[in-house]
């Protein structure tokens, strides 16, 4: 009986404990499950919050890339299609040119580096219309025209506000228009004429009034231009050449040329005096060669010698006279401190007498470079000096140059049938 009672007591005392524990376990599991779900939700929410900006940025990056890719394909295709008709456009600006008519050209190049006949020299193909058409979009940065005719600078160039280089060699251009001073971004200007009947006759007096970036200026063989424009605003100009300005009687002041390093004054036939060189603080090289009246009228040397070749009278030129003006000691001292070639003595070179003629081109050379020729009593070589027409040039320096190139197996391959006289062998 005791044992049974004990068992009953045990039964009576243990059963409620088991039930309570079971209920607590169920509650704990339910709470833990809810907590886990809650934590998972919070964790996922945090991850979403962290990843949302990344996903947005990735989407934007993808969309942007796709747009750029599509734009690039269309820009290249449309620009190439639009500019295919213009072989003189050397570099194209690829833009969205759908429904546009004007080729977005960056670089215009039309040139013949070695005309072979006198007729090509006198009357080269006219490229004015080509330039006007490719300037219409206003994108041109560089223009290079050599041995091609320009009847005018087309007004469409006014749209090219970012034009940086303008190279016009032997173009028969009659005038530089007044609006050319609007080319404010110009950095490089090279104008070269010739002695054919069609020559440049006018440069605007205020051409350089607002070209603050101009660093290179070459005005060559402008024998009918009466006046060189003022240069005082060209504070960043580093190179200046004024050559064969036969109608000019006075060079402009060098005031304001704070950065000029190289100066060439060539064949100033009727420029009796020179501007002072003292403003040219950065000048390192100065050349004054060929015929210059200032070299024999007493201005530079202090002694007037009208029997000098440079001052001998010519039938078609004003007579050179002596002057009492003298170059200052300060200028002499300054020029002696830099690399200077000033007033070579015994100069017998008359640039105009070497101008190409029908005889010196077609008759003596026939379009063949490096051929031996004789002009008058002087031996010469057929050559396209300075990218002009192939002509007989009685200059021993050109002959020596070609001989040296052949000896070193450099330059153009030599032709023994033509250049045996220069040392070329089979």
Q: What does this entry look like structurally?
A:
The structure is a single chain. This protein is 29% helix and 15% strand. With 426 residues, it is of the alpha/beta class. The chain has a domain at 356-422. The strands form two sheets. A ten-stranded mixed β-sheet has the order 1-2-3-4-5-6-7-8-9-10. Residues 1-20 have low confidence and may be disordered.
So what's the overall shape? elongated
Estimate percent helicity: 25-40%
* End-to-end CA span: 142 Å
Strand order of the largest sheet: 1-2-3-4-5-6-7-8-9-10
- Mean pLDDT, all residues: 88
Provide the β-strand percentage band: 5-15%
Radius of gyration: 41 Å
Class by SSE composition: alpha/beta
Helix-strand topology string: HEEHHEEEEEEEHEHEEEHH
Number of strands: 13
Largest sheet: 10 strands, mixed
Number of helices: 7
Catalogue the unreliable spans.
Answer: 1-20
Keywords for this structure?
426 residues; alpha/beta; 3-stranded antiparallel sheet; 29% helix; disordered N terminus; WLGC domain-containing protein; transmembrane; membrane; WLGC; LRR_dom_sf
Topology diagram in text:
Layout: H1 2-83, E1 89-92, E2 105-111, H2 118-122, H3 128-135, E3 142-146, E4 165-169, E5 188-192, E6 216-220, E7 239-243, E8 262-266, E9 285-289, H4 329-336, E10 339-342, H5 358-363, E11 372-375, E12 378-383, E13 391-393, H6 396-407, H7 416-419
Parallel strand pairs: 2-3, 3-4, 4-5, 5-6, 6-7, 7-8, 8-9, 9-10
Antiparallel strand pairs: 1-2, 11-12, 12-13
């Amino acid at each position: 009986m005791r044992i049974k009672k004990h068992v009953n007591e045990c039964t009576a005392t243990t059963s409620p404990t088991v039930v309570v524990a079971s209920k607590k376990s169920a509650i704990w599991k339910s709470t833990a499950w809810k907590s886990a779900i809650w934590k998972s939700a919070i964790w996922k929410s945090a991850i979403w919050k962290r990843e949302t900006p990344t996903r947005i940025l990735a989407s934007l990056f993808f969309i942007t890339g796709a747009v750029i890719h599509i734009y690039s394909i269309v820009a290249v295709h449309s620009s190439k299609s639009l500019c295919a008709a213009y072989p003189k456009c050397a570099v194209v600006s690829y833009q969205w040119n759908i429904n546009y008519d004007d080729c977005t050209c960056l670089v215009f190049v039309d040139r013949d580096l070695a005309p072979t006949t006198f007729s090509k020299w006198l009357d080269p193909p006219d490229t004015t219309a080509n330039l006007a058409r490719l300037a219409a979009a206003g994108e041109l940065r560089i223009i290079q025209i050599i041995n091609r005719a320009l009847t005018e600078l087309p007004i469409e160039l006014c749209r090219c506000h970012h034009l940086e280089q303008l190279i016009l060699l032997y173009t028969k251009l009659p005038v530089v228009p007044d609006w050319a001073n609007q080319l404010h971004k110009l950095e490089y200007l090279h104008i070269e004429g010739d002695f054919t009947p069609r020559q440049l006759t006018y440069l605007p007096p205020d051409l350089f009034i607002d070209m603050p970036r101009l660093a290179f200026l070459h005005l060559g063989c402008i024998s009918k231009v009466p006046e060189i424009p003022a240069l005082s605003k060209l504070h960043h100009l580093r190179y200046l050449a004024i050559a064969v300005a036969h109608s000019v009687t006075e060079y402009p002041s060098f005031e304001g040329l704070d950065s000029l390093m190289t100066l060439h004054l060539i064949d100033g036939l009727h420029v009796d005096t020179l501007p002072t060189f003292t403003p040219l603080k950065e000048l390192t090289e100065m050349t004054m060669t060929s015929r210059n009246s200032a070299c024999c009228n007493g201005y530079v040397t202090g002694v007037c010698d009208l029997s000098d070749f440079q001052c001998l009278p010519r039938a078609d030129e004003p007579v050179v006279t002596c002057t009492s003006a003298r170059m200052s000691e300060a200028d002499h001292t300054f020029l002696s401190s830099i690399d200077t070639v000033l007033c070579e003595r015994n100069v017998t070179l008359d640039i105009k007498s070497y101008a190409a003629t029908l005889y010196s081109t077609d008759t003596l050379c026939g379009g063949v470079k490096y051929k031996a020729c004789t002009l008058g009593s002087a031996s010469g070589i057929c050559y396209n000096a300075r990218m002009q027409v192939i002509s007989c040039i009685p200059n021993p320096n050109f002959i020596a140059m070609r001989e040296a190139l052949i000896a070193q197996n450099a330059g153009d391959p030599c032709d023994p049938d033509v250049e045996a006289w220069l040392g070329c062998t089979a």
